[in-house]
Design a protein that fits this description.
The protein is an all-alpha fold and about 300 residues long. About 70% of the residues lie in helices and about 0% in strands. Helix 9 packs antiparallel against helix 10.
């Protein structure tokens, strides 16, 4: 009769040793000592029935750990995302101003868009909340795409709450530092969706909201930085510095747009630059530059045959 092998495979053994062995060790000693009245001083019984039970127990613990680790992550991401968006939006947003602390002192940055532009937060927040719910569904537990997305989604929700409270409280540089971190996580979240990957169904629409989010934060970073500079005493040559900020945002936006081939991300710049031109109607130089930059991004959205080049 062939000898049965009561061993874990290599992958199971690795998972067992990393996450389960410490808690199992105590149970194992009690189990084997109870079956063998004479202590073995670290050696377990060689009885086939003992080995078989031990193997089944180990594998059951491994499967349970796999399930619980991902399931807990799903629930945590869901709770953190909803709390990080709903709670500050329902409290801090009452004192929120587009230009941050500068608006409190009547110093509006010349890169602040018209108020209608901020309606873009509606699809952004709805998309992030929907993404949190979608990733928490039981059948999405082991989706490798969502496993990459979860940590960035939770982190961006936490930073979103910090940023909203910092802006509403009239802080100077904390919103700037936070929104740079927020932009980094938004780009990482977009990257986690995959570059050049065509999603289908729900993931496609959720990906659109993340692209809008990343594009909007690219320009929101400019507004927050301009606000902090105004309050720091940079009140000379304000139109000049506004144009510099717009060009910096354009450089970042075109780099991401071209390398990631994301038309939704580029479309946010068309929306925002038009809103800036409308919002700064009393400053002709800013209007001209904003409209020209809007045209640049609009050109990247045209069909390739109209541009005479490969699709971006």
């Amino acid at each position: 009769m062939p000898t049965r092998c009561y061993l874990l495979n290599r992958r199971e053994e690795t998972e067992y040793r990393r996450g389960i062995e410490p808690s199992y060790f105590t149970f194992s000693i009690l189990f084997h000592v109870s079956l063998n009245p004479l202590p073995h001083f670290g050696y377990i019984s060689s009885s086939p029935s003992t080995w078989a039970f031990s193997l089944r127990l180990k594998r059951a613990l491994i499967h349970y750990a796999r399930f619980m680790s991902e399931r807990i992550k799903q629930i945590l991401v869901l709770v953190v995302t909803w709390a990080g968006i709903i709670v500050p939006f329902s409290t801090a947003v009452r004192n929120f101003t587009p230009g941050g602390a500068a608006d409190t002192y009547g110093l509006e940055p010349l890169v602040t868009p018209s108020p209608y532009a901020f309606l873009i937060w509606v699809p952004i927040y709805l998309g992030l909340l929907a993404l949190a719910v979608y990733q928490a569904l039981p059948d999405q537990e082991n989706d490798p795409r969502l496993q990459k997305i979860r940590p960035w989604l939770a982190l961006t929700a936490v930073l979103n709450a910090v940023w909203l409270y910092a802006v509403a409280d009239g802080r100077l540089w904390l919103p700037v530092v936070t929104i740079f971190a927020l932009l980094t996580t938004a780009l990482a979240l977009r990257y986690a969706f995959g570059i050049g990957v065509k999603h289908e169904g729900v993931m496609r629409w959720l990906g659109y909201s993340v692209s809008i989010y990343a594009g909007w934060l690219t320009l929101a970073t400019i507004v927050n930085t301009s606000s902090a500079l105004l309050l720091s005493g940079w009140t000379s040559w304000v139109p000049f510095w506004a144009i510099i900020m717009l060009l910096v945002g354009t450089a970042i936006g075109l780099t991401v747009r071209v390398n990631w081939r994301d038309p939704v991300y580029g479309g946010v710049f068309v929306w925002t630059f038009l809103a800036i031109a409308i919002g700064q109607w009393g400053h002709p130089l800013v209007i001209i530059v904003a409209l020209l930059l809007m045209i640049v991004f609009a050109m990247t959205l045209l069909p390739p045959i109209l541009r005479g080049r490969k699709a971006l």
